[in-house]
Each structure stands twice: as structure tokens, then as C-alpha cells.
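Appendix C. Worked example: Transcriptional regulator
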Amino acid sequence: MADLERRRNEELARILHQLGWSPERLAREVSLALPPGLAISSTAPYKWRDRGMVPRSPHDQAVCEVLSRTLGIAVTYEQLWGRMGGHRGAKILSPRLLTDPWTADTAQTALREAATDAGPVRLTDLFRGADLDQAAARLDSPPPPVGGGEGALRVEPGLAGELGLSYRSKQKLERACGGGLVLGPVRAELAMLAKLLELGAYDERLGRELYGTASRLARLAGWAAYDLGHDAAAQRAFVAALRAAHVSGDPRLGVAVLGALVVLATQGTGGRGLDAVSALVTALDTHGAALSPVARARQYGRLAGAYGRRGEAERAEAAAARAFAELDGLPGTEEVRAALSGMVGEGRLALGQHRLAKVLLAEAVAGLGPGRARTKTLLMVRLAEAHRRLGDQREAARTASLARSLAAGMQSERVAKALREFDAAGRVAGR
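Step 2, the predicted output written as C-alpha cells:
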């Protein structure tokens, strides 16, 4: 057991109080969830709760799983143990992650690091705007030689397509059920692909296709880590995705990564010192024509939300107009338009334009199907917030209740945090 800092774990205490569990009850439930021989003493949870001590693996994750299953909503490592001090087992990210040479070898290194299940990663000042701008500029330069491809493992040409199918299935699960469900499997598949790139035999065309698939998997790992509140791990995965995109020779993949970094920089804590907005704007100016209208709309929607959260109303409005214009006349884009309304609506909410935000968020919630349940739940919480700010407390409570029902079992710290913050704001307002 790692004694990080002897202070009370208020989050664990809150959850135990909510469940009506004693520390002894938690000890029994955790022991039942573990293989024989790994049972814990009945007094261990007292040390976790009252002295700020953190259990070692596998007990740390077992506590999260037991509480998640009982509550019906994700309880993550970061939520339960991350606030208790310097993270046990944390790994400091390399300060050269963005500035190392942009070669196939360093892309493989970044992919292996992104695939590492290292637990929480200490958040550092790794990212600087200038470094990211220089890294994004790599999308304008020719891709480096694929390198390698002369190993003993023969790679069948159809493997890249099969890996792509696996990526798409995991992406659907992440969007519907939350990042906690897929982060482990995505990292495992990414590690396998990184090893294949290192030891496999493939020509240049197949090699670039494999790097493209690796970029998609790393980006998905980043989204899943971000959804669990592991922002620094998300940074690491997104940089790996950017490096692999560069080797693949497909700038569209790089633009998608920059869009993800915009969200991370303006919605999470992982954007400290990072201005991904300027990098994405430059990339869209240069490579926007290569994107599909739907992909362009998605990135301009992210810009609209980011500008709103930064308080830049005119730029937010211009980006939103450009995003919706990309979808004009395109059939079969109803759900894409709904997701776009959600991005823009969140930006309007941040700007204090509550009535307009309510309209946009309601459109988004109505238009998103079960396949986007995680996003729909988050937007329902934002919609509830808009109702409350407009003075409609009854509708706010009803909408939040629906969001809570939809969130049951969802493996998303972002959803859990949004609901906690909404409830806390309601208690403050009711005093």
C-alpha cells in the first residue's frame, strides 16, 4: 500500500456514505471481487478513507470496479485516488515528445508509450503552443520514409483493413458506453500494431496504411483516456496519433488529431499552456479541401465550441456558421447536424447566451441516437444547466434526471463529473 499523504479521502467517504456502507462492508465486497489469496483485511478501507492511503494493484482498480457496479455509474481511478497526492506509479512524459525528430522510429516509440497501461500520468507542462504549431506544420511536409518493414513477420495486405474494422467497432462502443469500456482493449491492440510495425515485413504502401490505422487507434485511446479524466495520458496518445498520421502521409488524420487537442485544451485540464485552436485553424486553411464536408463541419464545430469557452463570441458565431454551411444540402446528415448543434450549443452556454444555447442543445438531444449515448447524456446535463440558468428549475431537474438514467452503467468520468457538478451547483443555488 502506498502512503501518499495522510489526509482524508473525501471522495471515498462521500461514496461510502451514499451507499450506506461501512469500511468493513467495502472490504468484504472487494475481497469477493478478487481471486482467492488476494483478500484484504477489514481495516484496510479505514486507512484509504481516513489517512489518504492508496491500495496497490489490483486492489486499487478492484475498489473502482466494485463501487462502479454498485452505483451504476463509473467511479474512476483518477476520481477516487488521483487527488490524494503524487500518483503512485506515475510516469513523467518526455519533454521531447513533440520536438524529437519526426521519423518512423520515433512514431513507433510514441505509439508504444501510448499503448502502455501506466495508470494515471502526472500532468506536466509538456505542451507549449509554439511546439504544437511546429508539430502541426509537419503535416505540410512530405512524410518520412516508412523504414523497417524488413522483419521476419510477414504482414498480409488485408490486415490493415481488418484492423480498421476493429477500430470502428471500438469507436462505436466508446461513443455509446464511455471510454472506460474500451481503453484497455484499444491500448492492447495499439501495442500489437506497434510491435507489428517494428518486426513485420511490409512494403511502403502497406506500411503507410498500417501507420494510418495506428493513428486512428492512438486517437481513440486518447479520446477514451480523456473521457476517463486522464488528460495527460490523452495528450500522450494524441501526440502518438499525430506522429503516426505524419508517417502515413494522410494529412486528414493529422487534422482530426488537432481537433481532438482543441477539445482537450478548452474543456479539460490537459490544455495547460496549449493553444491548439491556432494549429487547427492553420491546418484547416491548408488541408481543409482534402476533408469531406462532414469532417470539415465537425472541426469547425469544435472551433465554435472552443471560441465560446474562450469568450470570443464573434469568432464562435463565424465558426458555427461555417460548420452548418458545410452540411447544407447533404442528405443523411441528421445525426451529424445534431452533434454539431451540441458543440455550438455548449459554446453558446459558455458565452452566457442561455436561450440560444437551450434551443441548440434541445435539438442536439432530440437528434442523437443510442450510438451517441455518451455525448447525448453530456448534452442533456448542459441542457439542464441552461434551463436552470433561465429559471426553469422543474425542467432542469427533469432533464438532469433523464440524463442520470441514461448514464447508468456508463463508463465515463466526464459524464459522472458533469452530473456531480450540476448537483453541487443546485445545492449552492438552493441555499
